[in-house]
Design a protein that fits this description.
The complex is a heterotrimer of chains A (336), B (305) and C (298). Chain A has 336 residues and is α/β, with parallel strands linked by helices. Chain A is built from twelve helices and twelve strands. Classes of the chains: A alpha/beta (336), B mainly alpha (305), C mainly alpha (298).
Chain lengths: 336, 305, 298
Amino acid sequence: MPLLEVNNLRTSFHTRHGIVRAVNDVSFSLEKGETLGIVGESGSGKSVTCYSLMRLIPQPPGKIEGGSAMFDGVDLLKASPEQLGSIRGKRISMIFQDPMTSLNPYMRISEQLIEPLLIHERIGRADALNRGIQILQEVGVPDAANRIRSYPHEFSGGMRQRVMIAMALITKPELLIADEPTTALDVTVQAQILDLVKKMQRELGMAVIWITHDLGVVAGFCQRVQVMYAGRIAERAATDELFAHTAHPYTRALQKSIPALQPKGKSLYTIGGMPPDLSQPIAGCPFVPRCEFAQEQCNQPVGLKSIGTNHDTACLRVQKGEVNLQQPEPEPAQKT
Amino acid sequence: MLRFIVKRIFEAIPVLLIVATVSFFLMKMMPGGPFDKEKATTPEIKKAIEAQYGLNKPVFQQYLDYMGHLVRGDLGPSFKYAGWSVNELLASAFPVSLELGCYALAFALTVGMLAGIIASLRKNTASDYVPMSLATLGICLPTFVTGPLLILFFGIVLGWYNTSGWDFPSDRVLPSITLGLYYTAYISRLTRGGMLEILNQDFIRTARAKGASEWRVVWKHALRGSVLSVVSFLGPAVAGIITGSLVVESIFQIPGLGRFFVMAGFNRDYTMVMGTVLFFAALTIFANLVVDILQVWLNPKLRFE
Amino acid sequence: MTAEFPTVTQHTDQVEAGHSLWQDAWHRLRQNKMAVVGAVFVFLLALASFLAPFIAPHSYEQTNLAIGATPPSPAHWFGTDVLGRDLLSRILYGGRISLSVGLVATAVSVIIGVLYGSISGYIGGRLDVVMMRIVDILYSLPFIIFVILLMVIFGRNIILLFMAIGAVEWLDMARIVRGQVMSLKKQEFVEAAVALGLRKRRIILRHMIPNILGIVVIYSTLIVPSVMLLEAFLSFLGFGVQPPMSSWGTLINDGAKDMEEYPWLLIFPALFFSITLFSLNFLGDGLRDALDVRASKD
């Protein structure tokens, strides 16, 4: 039984300029203790997917149009506020991208940190504080007993993120959703935070969904990867498999864009064009305008299909075996 | 913190001195003296009275005398009420105004903040439009319009309250509401705005992600920040309430400092006018200092500067 | 950061590039019904007051004790006051005073505020710090008390009234103008002008002021009702304009005195005054919201 099973999730935003389909029929599942990476550029729907699960989307203008998200027998999308409240922060925790704005600047760390305990567990303040100090030490905050009384702005970015992690893990949740937690941090700090989460995951045996735009981060950490584009899943596989046998032009383009992997002296590779306007209906594959392999047939509706063990792709031509993305040089583009 | 207070007091002293000096010389420029209106005075008697009050000395001498007394906290004798010193008059009238002002402020804060919070939580519904439209009304209508109207309606038509006076507890109701109305309206708008802005912030999302109930999110997380915008308004609010008391006390015949000031103005009671101006100035400076301290205390980010 | 939530505007902006900021703002303003209603009312009231000498049915100062304090009737739509003067005419003329004080005092405010703010913002440095500290201190003082002091001393001189009231309201304008100037100073076209060797004064006059004009206009419309309120306040207490040339404030005061027996004497002036203030406030709010994109929240 998977820990989390999402089926046909559709979330859109009703704006003045039209209905933006941010998440368009996304399904995936997650096993206990598994690490899943969700990769994509801004606007791909990766964050909205997870916010939808936690029902943290502002409901006007956002709207969960359909689908289900089963977590231990409860459909998160339809759960009552009480049910949701008992899962959020206790069994599923979330950490966010910018720790400065995500922590309450008017509250001491101690108050915010132990809040999940006070909400979800029958525990006295004194005990909660002790647990708070303990977990602060575990996440590597020096002099925890004193610093717990500080305010967020007294910490550095990396420290704040550690506090966020402590706050999320203090209730020992079964699933941690991390929305680009290292994007706003220095590279050296990024590595530390990653290691910290890995360590905590081992200790607690929890599942992790790691949202990022950086394929490199995923490579070192996640067991499985899901690449999203324009609100849909483009490709999904075990991490090694994804890199070894890439099965979607977008994934390939992402890999090519990793600066560290590019040959010195040549200009950096970028994916030409822009993500599509999600308020307009898109007939076929959304990547067509930017894809080197696009053909007329790609404009038909295409779904996610398996092309191997636990390896799915949404590229029609790869599904049909017409294209092998492992070749060093791409096929001459046949644009429509 | 202490340095902050000391610095502010240091700033206040020259301001007060300037105010005193400017007021003094302005009063001296006035055509007519305080005793012109007295009936049945022969020129000799007038001269004698003026001598008694020191009005026949050269102006600069009078100024030094006044400042000398001032530094010792003596605001001089009232020219109108013989036998009374300005200090005594202030002491008798100020408590009344203080009471009125406190009620008005308390009304404004409680009703205003409550309305603002509810409006922000039920944005774009009737619970938002109605109070906010009333608030716009409250901001536009001056006290000298609402006061008489309230008296007309509740005092005369309905007969629930006395139309003037300060003798009975129930006399406090209409004046306090009149004086506080504008601030209630303004505070409700500030609170609503502050709440809406805070509720949009990321840390509110974090609180929800932790499983906090909406109740908890509002009271423990959102409120603290939105109170700040109200607190920064309190400084001007106190100045405004002092000003407003002039009208409200006149309308409702309340024996407070505002009314004394107005009457002193008409009577050309030099010392009383100046004394009140100084007192009001000092009061506002003090109130602003308190508000600033409050702000620093409430906003942790400011505390460490 | 809610950067993840997709927006469509990045695409539509490219299409609508033709609309200037003013056109956008005008469009938004027109959609704001309350602001439009406010503007219409203000216009009508201003027109009526301006035309008072031509449309007032009676003289505003002619007393006639025989018809003293009569309720509204066909001959006198709003009734008469205690001395037999027609209330409608007095209200129309009162409007002239109130509105003209409003406009002139606002102009005074604006001039002082713009000058003070521009200098402080442009020169910057210690001068700016000192100037703004002065503003802070003045802001906290109950200015009206000083105005009353002035009125008491110098009598109810209408010119003095204009200047004194204007002197109360310039603080906000100064702050806002300073903010605008400071942000404009950093922008590229100013650097270009400096690079071209233009003198500071020329830069301020020819380049900055047109850009500040927009914000000044908006906040001016918000100052007008405050100023009118101040004038009415002073007149109500008896420190403002002298009868028989009475402003709305004086009329309200007179009405309040006799409201038990002759309520219409209070209700009509209060009504006109309130409606004017509302309309101005709605209009001002509407203008401010319409140009919100530009309005500096610094």
